[in-house]
Amino acid sequence: MGQITEIEQYIIDKVREKRIKAGLTQAVLSVAIDLNPKFVGNVERLKTDDKYNINHLKKIAEVLGCSIKDFFPE
């Protein structure tokens, strides 16, 4: 398992925050973006090398009704 960068952690935290605020479980968000039900949980737990890519973030933003920019620092 590789090292996680500061920006990757920021994005994971922002996605988690918005997911929880929307009342979605990890599995529901995973399926909503057409991925394995365990994907979001794997990303959030940092126990695997699973990470969000730009396409994931675009789909997540659509599902959560926000802008992809909301996942990045100013």
Automatic annotation (TrEMBL):
<dbReference type="InterPro" id="IPR010982">
    <property type="entry name" value="Lambda_DNA-bd_dom_sf"/>
</dbReference>
<dbReference type="GO" id="GO:0003677">
    <property type="term" value="F:DNA binding"/>
</dbReference>
<dbReference type="InterPro" id="IPR001387">
    <property type="entry name" value="Cro/C1-type_HTH"/>
</dbReference>
<feature type="domain" description="HTH cro/C1-type">
    <location>
        <begin position="15"/>
        <end position="71"/>
    </location>
</feature>
<dbReference type="Pfam" id="PF01381">
    <property type="entry name" value="HTH_3"/>
</dbReference>
<protein>
    <submittedName>
        <fullName>Transcriptional regulator</fullName>
    </submittedName>
</protein>
